[in-house]
Amino acid sequence: MKYAKQKSTLRLIINSFLGISFALCLLACQGDEFKLKKALNSFDKGEYELVIQQLKPLAEKGYQLDQTSYFIAESYRLSNRISSALPYYQTALSKGNTDNSIRFNMAFAAKATGNYTLAQSALKDFLQNKPSKSLKLKAEIELENLPQVSELQKKTSPVGVQAVQGNTPMAEFSARKLGDELIITSSRKQSIYKNNGLPYLGLYKASLKSPVELGALNLFSPMIDKENANEGTPAFSKDGNTVVFARGNTGKNKDLSPDVDLYISRRNGNDWSVPERLAISDSIAWDGSPAFSSDGKTLYFSSNRRGGKGGLDIYRSPMDNSGRFGRPINLGYAINTPGDEIFPFVSEDGKLYFSSDGHPSLGGLDLFVASRNENEIIIEHLGVPMNSISDDFGISLVDSLSGYFSSNRAGGKGDDDIYYFKSPASNPDRWWTNEAPPVVAATENKIVQYFLQTEIIDPSGKPIDSVKVSIRRNGQSIDPGYSNKKGRLEIMDLGENDQIDFVCEKEDYLIKRSTFSMEGREIPARLLKKEITDTTFVWQIVMDKAEVGKEITQLYQINPIYYNLDRAEIRNDASEELEKIVQFLRDNTNVSIELGSHTDSRGSVPYNQKLSQRRAESAVRYIVLRGIDQKRIKAKGYGESQLVNECADGVECSEEMHQQNRRTEFKITEIKAE
């Protein structure tokens, strides 16, 4: 009896222990799941260093390695540390993650570590698994580039390279000599940028004790210093009195221009003026690494704006005598690739230096120089030791023999470092090559014939016949056309630089303008397989009937209108969108509209209501000043009363979801008989 009682007690203890163990295990699993969700929320916010810190402990204990390893790898890649991503991509793939982009990104991570064999096999696997069109093109070009690496490794530049005394474990790059000082970009601010875990970037200056030795580093200008924003990559006019630089990536949810824009400041006595955002900046794109031409009449910069060749492209913008910059022009496929082209610099003799990972390179970004030989643009790799398997970028020449560049190569202080280089005086014109042939030449051995098929359809995709279409090619009017029963116009032949403007009219329909541009659509010569290739672009123009209550924002591709925090004044980027409404009202003279402004749920209801009304009235004033009768447009502020998602008070939402509610809508309120 006593034994039975002891046995029963023992069983109870064992069951209790098992129950406690199971509960603890369940709590641990739930805790890991919560940590993963928390990390993914940080990932959505672009806080990549935080993601790495949150997920590494989970990966080390083997928790959902297909996901944890993948997001660690992506966080390294998106914070410009792709070489560290390689083992995590490999783990994610081996643990069953089926995202084909892993193979693509793994290839470039392998290349950044010098493992060209793995890079090649990963790209081949990627191309066999139904890749997306945009990545497919870059993968094909990279596969063609990789066999050239062995030749690039043999290419040497007769220069001496020396790390600058003044580099630190933080980031230092994009050095520009101004007088007796070196102006650099460095991560030295007090606040931390959650993308990479480093302090925010700023502009700093240091006296030069010698070309390779910096004095004490000081803030470049209190006027050009925004604490919670990255600032850097300065470009100075020839007289040193104007600077253009990049600012952005604040990491703040309320950042109204969440990417990077170009700003300009002018010397004001002993300091600089308050920076102004350049109108040529695209508020929804990355615009940075500016450089002036040697005569100061052209600004070069990099951008990933729509219509490019892929990734970051180099653009040029002419400046008139009043200091205004003209429409940015893409430098085309001779320079730009589906990869990244960034950090341009123009020398006194007109050569364009830049960095690229799209042209054949040793690892990440490599340094190149472009020069013109009659009608041909020659691209040359700067060889070793200027280039390495790491990122080499941000070159600037002090004179024809020497200058500075930046690199995160092995042997540095930590992150990006600044290096000084000098060439022997015996070879001042071609110090970057030792008689090796050009790596890349932009040749035109093959021909592409481009054609345009235009289709007029309604919002449901049905063709609209008998539409009168006025056409201008590169600003010159050509004969108008009419759509047939299939909604089509006659096929047009195209030139490589053509821009075609259409104005479509039909009774009971809203007049619709549309522009087709060849910019960014040319096929790179290196991808042509035949002597003559025919390519037809299909351009669809959507027309809709004029009806009271119809919302026209999407039909006319009007982007959201942004305002500065707690302000209602119209910004430069907002004016670009309001011009579309001005044109709509000029075209459709019998239509009146309501301009409705909305906010997200943050802030009190009364406050948001008043703010939205002020902003709507400000936009209406802008339109009226452009010559539109005030009777045809009404301002209406809706505050937070018409949210388009669940992001009400008390609901945690991402910045992207809040942005969906911060919108401006244009609704037809009246149609007069003509």
TrEMBL record:
<keyword id="KW-0998">Cell outer membrane</keyword>
<dbReference type="InterPro" id="IPR006665">
    <property type="entry name" value="OmpA-like"/>
</dbReference>
<dbReference type="InterPro" id="IPR011990">
    <property type="entry name" value="TPR-like_helical_dom_sf"/>
</dbReference>
<dbReference type="Pfam" id="PF07676">
    <property type="entry name" value="PD40"/>
</dbReference>
<dbReference type="Pfam" id="PF00691">
    <property type="entry name" value="OmpA"/>
</dbReference>
<dbReference type="InterPro" id="IPR050330">
    <property type="entry name" value="Bact_OuterMem_StrucFunc"/>
</dbReference>
<dbReference type="InterPro" id="IPR006664">
    <property type="entry name" value="OMP_bac"/>
</dbReference>
<feature type="domain" description="OmpA-like">
    <location>
        <begin position="550"/>
        <end position="672"/>
    </location>
</feature>
<dbReference type="InterPro" id="IPR011659">
    <property type="entry name" value="WD40"/>
</dbReference>
<keyword id="KW-0472">Membrane</keyword>
<dbReference type="InterPro" id="IPR036737">
    <property type="entry name" value="OmpA-like_sf"/>
</dbReference>
<protein>
    <submittedName>
        <fullName>OmpA family protein</fullName>
    </submittedName>
</protein>
<dbReference type="InterPro" id="IPR011042">
    <property type="entry name" value="6-blade_b-propeller_TolB-like"/>
</dbReference>
